[in-house]
Amino acid sequence: MNSLFLLTQNSNAILGPIAKVLGWIMNGIYVILDDFLNIQNIALTIIIFTVVIYLCMLPLTYQQQKFSKMSQVMNPEIQAVQKKYKGRKDSASMQAMNEETQAIYQKYGVNPSGSCVFMIIQLLILFPLYRVIYNVPAYVTRVKDSFDSVVTGIMNTSGYQDTMTAFLSDISAKNSVLKNVSLNFEGTQTEAYDSIIDVLYKCTSANWQTLAEKFSGLADTVTSTQATVEHFNNFLGANIVYSPRTLISTGFNEGQYFLIVIAILIPVISAGSQFISMKLVPQQNNNNGQQEAMASQMKMMNYFMPFYSLLIVFFLPIGVGLYWIAGAVIRVIQQLLLNRHFDRMDLAKVVADNEKKAEAKAKKKAEKKGVSGETISSAARINTRQIDAQKHKTMAEKASSTAKTSYKGNSQTKYKEGSLASKANKVRNYNEKNSK
Known about the structure:
Number of helices: 19
Largest sheet: 2 strands, antiparallel
Order of helices and strands: HHHHHHHHHHHEEHHHHHHHH
Structural class: mainly alpha
Strand content: under 5%
Strand order of the largest sheet: 1-2
Shape: elongated
Helix content: over 70%
Mean pLDDT: 77
Distance between the termini: 68 Å
Radius of gyration: 29 Å
């Protein structure tokens, strides 16, 4: 039965600890806003929380965007390797192809798994964040404390269990958020206290008026608590605990039509900001049929993700929608800045730096096996494309030129001097020579 008590923090083995960390961060932000700016607002706390989270994820964002941008340059080289081993399914060829492909990633200093890691982390934040926003008093101490007077007064009222049970039964019929909320009067006093807060935190203005009628002796306390709760949960007149779907229903039931406008705007803005964010993701060059298929899939994602955002935000609390919107806006800003940074990047310097890093890493690894220093330096060197005529080209110029480059990759082909296929062949021949 405890699983129904929303004030009890999420106990899931994976999401529970993440929710506690997110709640701890939100609590800290709320305290800072309260102490230094005298601001008590969960919506603003969520927006600042989003900024903090995305700043913490900036290294991952950088790697994700770097991979997307570098793909414009890497794809012709990767295709050359794939063509070279086309139709060869033996383990030696597959291993050689993987090694040469990894050499390309290493050459440009990217990690193809970075995008997946970024998406996984986003999901691991989103789901526990939903629980934190849905039940802020369980994580933000000062929000919970604001209910103390009214809950203490209710529990000191004779027959409060029956009165609260009847109250919840009455209001849950028109308040869908309360349908899965339960009062616990069979456990300890603390559990009863917490379960009452679970109910009151999700009350609408009309629900608070009903509560004042049920506990007439606490009318003033109920009114003051209602003002406090509606103050810190307020976002443009709407309660962030409610989903747009619930707000539309509440707006019609209580004649508060401004709630309907807010309820429509939140998911629409979320979808719009998501669409802009997706459009700014670097697109890959269409060098062949496979690339055209990938570009077509990416185009579908550009429309699917905003539509998905529209749906999920419509059914989740507005607070989650705020996180979604703030995140999309931050991603737009990050992508504009990172795209500009990558377009100005000197590819020759990037490749040279990565060669040094790879050589140092291989040297250190080989030293552990007792290989001589001279042999290590020779074996660790990666023969990458020589950039003579294009030495000072920026990323934008290089990406443009690779779109016009074609490669032929079979075992009898004379490779274009300086091409990735030539480099891959040299690496393969070198490996075969030294493996004998």
